[in-house]
Amino acid sequence: MHCTRKITDRLYYVGGDDRRLSLFENIHPVPFGISYNSYLLLGDKTILFDAVDWSYCRNFLDNIEHLLNGRKLDYIVVNHIEPDHGASMEEVLLRYPDIKIIATERAFLFMRQFGFHIDGHEQLAVKNDDVIDLGSHRLKFITASMVHWPEVMCTIELETGAIFTSDAFGSFKSLDGRIFNDEVDYEREFLDEARRYYFNIVGKYGVQVAALLKKVEEYRDNIKLICPLHGLVWRSNLDYILKIYDKWSRYESEQKGAAVVYASMYGNTENAAFYLASSLCEKNMSNVRLFDVSKTDMSLIIAECCKLSHIVLACCTYNFAIYPPMESLLHHFKGIGLKNKTFAVIENGTWAIKSGDLIEKYISEEIKNNKIIEGRVTVTSSPDENRLRELEALSERIVLSINEK
Question: pLDDT at position 368, please?
C-alpha cells in the first residue's frame, strides 16, 4: 500500500512512521514513535534521497513504485548510511538494477562493510562543493563529517531549494500524516523530542554541527526547504530551527532553572532533593525539574539538563563510590561533551561518605568548562534540622547564581 505526500511540484515524501519501535538504537525510548524520511524527485532524472529502516521497507518500496508509475529510478543519493536509513537500500538496488549511487567515498566503504552488493552499480563519489547537473535539477553536496557519522553529507537541490540534511534537524516522534513544520504546534508537540534527539544522538558533535551551520548559512538564500531523515520538513520559519541548532551546538542553556537529579537508596537523599526543590520554588525560582536517576531514562535527564542552566546532583555513597546510576549519568555528560553548566552537589552516607568528593572531582577533571557552586551539603543518613538549614542556604546560593546569568 502506498502513502506519499507532495512537497513541491516534483518532490515527494516517500518515508513513513514506526510506531511499534520501543527503543531507538536499542537504547533511547521512543514512546511517541519515530519517522524514517526519504524523498523522491521526479525531473528529467528520477532521484531518491536516502532509504529507510528495514521496518518500513515494504511500504517504502510501494511508495517509490507508485510515484514512478512505470519510470525507472535513475539515482539514489546516500547522505547517511546508518542502518536506520540504509538497511533497505539493497532492496532498492535489487528492484532497480540500473540505478546509480551518489555518496561520499567513506559511505561507499561503509556500504561494503554492511555487505551491500553495490559493485554492479555505477558509483559517483562526491566531495564538498561538488555539483552534479542532472538536467532539470542540479545537486550540490556539502560534506558534514561527524554529524554524526564520518560519511555524512548534505545535498542541496538547487532548483527547488531543498536541502537534505541527514540526521541534522531531526527529531524523535512519528509524524502521523503531518510532514511540515507549519502543520503542527512545534513547541508544544515536537520541541522536547527534538531536543532529546539532538543531545543524545548528535549533541556530542557540537563543533561539527556548528561547522555545518556555517556552510548552510553560505547558501541560505538558496535554501527554501529543510528535509531531515527524521522529523518534520521545514518549509517556513527556517530561521527558527537554525537558531535553535546554533544554540544547542554551543551548549547554550535555553532557560534559567535547575534540574535536580537524585540517587537515593532508601528515600533519605530523595527527601533532601525534594526539600531543596521546594526551597528553590519558594524563592520564586519555580523552573525546577526533579529526576530519580534510578527510574528515569537517561535520555530524558540529559535533555532537561542541557535545556536548563543549573544542575543539582544529590547522591548517596555506595561501596565508597558514587551510586552507580549517578555515575552512569556523569559518564553520559562526559560522552556528550556537556559544558556551560553550573552544578551544585548534595552527598549522603552513614559512614565513609565519598560521593560528593568523587562527583566534584569528576566534574572538574572529566566534564570541562562547567562551574561548581561552593559549599556542598553533606547529609549523614537522613536530613536533620541542621541539614535543612544548609539546604536552605544552598538554595539561596543557587538562586543567586541563576539570577547572575
Answer: 86
